[in-house]
Amino acid sequence: MVMGLGAWFTATHTHVESELSRLLPEGATPTERLLLTELRTGATARLILLALEGENADRLAETSKQLAAWMRKSGAFHYVGNGEQAWTQEERERLFQYRYVLSPHVQESMFSRDQLRHSLEQRMSDLTSPLSPMVKALIPADPTGEFMKILQAWMTWTAPRRHQGVWFSSDLRRALLVAETKATGFDVESQEQLQEQIRETVRRVAAGPAPPHVVMTGPGVIAVEMRQTIQDDVWRLSVYATLLVTTLLFVSYGSVSILALSLLPLASAIVAGIAAVDLAFGFIHGITLAFGITLLGVVDDYPIHLFSHLTRESRAPAVMKEIWPTMRLGVVATALGFSALLLSGFPGLSQLGLFAMVGLFTAACVTRWVLPHIVPMGFHARREGLQVARWVDALTTARLVVPLMVVLALGAFMWSDAPLWEEDIANLSPISTEQQARDLALRNELGGPGVQDLVVVEGSSEEEALQRSEMLALALDPLVGTEELTGYDLAARYLPSRRTQQTRQASLPDRETLERNITSAIKGLPFKPGLFQPFLDAIEKAKTQEPIEIETFSGTALGLKLNSLLFMREGRWVAIVPLRGVTDRKTIRDYLAPWREQDVNYLDLKEESNRMVGTYRNEALRLLGWGLLSIGLVLLVGLRDPITVLRVMLPIGSALVVMAALLHVLGERFSLFHLASFLLVIGLGLDYALFFNRRHGTPTERGRTVFGLVVCSTTTISVFGVLALSQIPVLRAIGMTTALGSLACLAFAALLAESPEKPSLLAETSPE
């Protein structure tokens, strides 16, 4: 009844989160918080790059237009671009209205008679170009061509080839689109729905034989594909592992009912862990749930110990009471080890720690007070394991193998030149090389900017951030000239500071002077008198109009661009300056080093992300050390004998060293996921070492203990050995680490166990 109610409660009340950003920390520094915020909600994280592939370019162009129209009307996108229109009519009107404060070319000399005549001669030349209709319409109000100069100055990327007015790849086999979703890139559910709607729309608007093939990439697309890859891999491996463990347990105990009962502590632990995390955090992440269940693999050992000790004459409650002191000590010590995760500043690890701790205690309580009363009457382990016990006990004569292997392992670390830690976060990603190649190809075809190099400009106000950005632009221009970088983008290019706008306004002539200069300039040119009245009116209005603000472009594509480049975080304004084509990052970093005093910092996002992950890895490593110390103190209190504590802890420490060295030799680099697996190995090792050093009244009883430990270890190695076959780096790391660790802990615990002929202090000093 309790299990049923618990399952119902978790199923109906628990919020399982799938957005990956919810696993990320808040960040310890302003820079980290900025990066993580942009990762969660930034414009770059919401981009979807699309390509419609096919042989008929005309059909692809028409499909692109219809798809873009549907996307704009759907309300799910902030911006959709396919080359049909660079600027909306509303944006063009606003730009034209503010052209004299937006144009970087505005200065007093350009309104002199000679400069005005030069501009008019250029406009006459433009009338013979393909842009003649547009130029002719603009000449009366904009004879200096400021509007076109603005558009040219803002063209910071090379547009793709056009066919029938829409973007195409150079070979006309791909119609290209780019979209910014309203949903964040890590909102996997929303992203998956949008992507499926896009595919369905293409099938609908391009009905017929051989419809265009839809190719998509971007953070949201990759997140959806990653989740599907993980789900498929986990499902496949779970089926294999379940069949393998079920077979092992059935062969070991020969009872279907016992097989089912062995799942009760684990099921109880999962339900309790979900409820605890949901109550503490308000949600549980799907990845926490998956990894938490993996970490709770240690609780499978609890019922196995009970079943292995049952005989024809014994009863389950009495047997459980007898082995409970040893099991209880292992549970408390293991839970303390997992508490290290709970104390980390990483929400994903904190959830994992709470899930594991609550699950451990729940499984132990169910095994202690529930399971013994529902074991079928008369059940007993048919295999006493005497022969296995003799083989294991014979290992104690070869104890020197353990220090020898530890020395060899330490030597492997000392003599190896291979990096110990995984410093590149990209190597932990399940993104396939095919996905990476597709993403790179689409970005190159669309001429998209790189996302690795940024300059972050901060200010106490929007105006200060913009002014510093303008000064930075003067410093970056020489780098573009020397080809240290190919270009950059910044908010001040589209929204000058108020100071710059006021300077440009001050350079505008009064109406009388301008009228005299324009009248003189048109002499001998085929322009009608009075034609430039709109120009005079525009200059007069521009001199007194209020400076343009970021809100002026609200609701437009330009406004969205500005919001991604200029925003407020933690009470300060931040201007982001993406750099393109950086050839030498060290040169850029050194060049911009003096600017740090003005709150201008260069960031290599890859390097910064790797550093951030390294910081949390080191924190987890420190907490792991404290967890081990706590385990030692708990064992000392429980066992009351330092020698016995050493006999329990030594196999675990030795196994960790040898296992880590073996993984290192195999080419593994350690990460947060390995450290989490180390905690599981410690829990398993505690279970093995405590039971190996438990006092046994008869050889038969010891045989049952050893048999149970062998079954525990075999099932663990089987499950995680299967997981080690995964193609996903994270799952493979957990599988390899735990499988090797379980085997090493079992072998070393047997080698270093108290000789069976001598009584152990473990049972004598562990009162009920």
Spell out the key features of this protein.
alpha+beta, 768 residues, elongated, disordered C terminus, 4-stranded antiparallel β-sheet
Describe this structure in words.
The structure is a single chain. Helix 13 (286-295) packs across helix 16 and helix 30 (699-723) packs antiparallel against helix 31. It is built from 32 helices and 13 strands. The strands form 4 sheets. Strands 9, 10, 11, 12 and 13 form a 5-stranded antiparallel β-sheet that branches. The longest helix has 35 residues, at 219-253. It has a domain at 230-428 and 612-764. Strand 11 and strand 12 form a beta hairpin. It is an alpha+beta fold and 768 residues long.
Name the structural class: alpha+beta
Q: What overall form do the CA principal axes indicate? A: elongated
Strand-residue proportion:
5-15%
From the structure provided, what is the oligomeric state, counting identical versus distinct chains? single chain
* Distance N to C terminus: 29 Å
- Rg from C-alpha positions? 35 Å
Annotation, overall tally of beta strands? 13
The averaged pLDDT comes out at 84
Query: Level of helix content?
Result: 55-70%
Low-confidence stretches: 763-768
What is the overall number of helices? 32
Main sheet specs: 5 strands, antiparallel
Give a quick summary of the entry.
Helix content is 62%, strand content 8%. It is of the alpha+beta class.
Give the helix/strand layout:
Blueprint: H1 2-13, E1 16-17, H2 30-41, E2 47-53, H3 57-74, E3 77-81, H4 89-97, H5 99-102, H6 113-126, H7 132-138, H8 146-154, E4 161-163, E5 166-168, E6 174-181, H9 188-205, E7 213-217, H10 219-253, H11 256-261, H12 264-281, E8 284-285, H13 286-295, H14 301-309, H15 316-342, H16 347-369, H17 386-394, H18 401-415, H19 433-446, E9 453-459, H20 462-481, E10 487-488, H21 491-494, H22 498-506, H23 511-521, H24 533-544, H25 557-565, E11 566-569, E12 572-580, H26 585-592, E13 600-604, H27 605-639, H28 642-665, H29 672-692, H30 699-723, H31 729-751, H32 761-764
Parallel strand pairs: 1-8
Antiparallel strand pairs: 2-6, 2-7, 3-6, 4-5, 9-12, 9-13, 10-12, 11-12
Helix pairs in contact: 1-12, 3-9, 6-23, 9-10, 10-30, 12-16, 13-16, 14-15, 14-30, 15-16, 15-27, 15-29, 17-30, 18-28, 27-28, 28-29, 28-31, 29-30, 29-31, 30-31
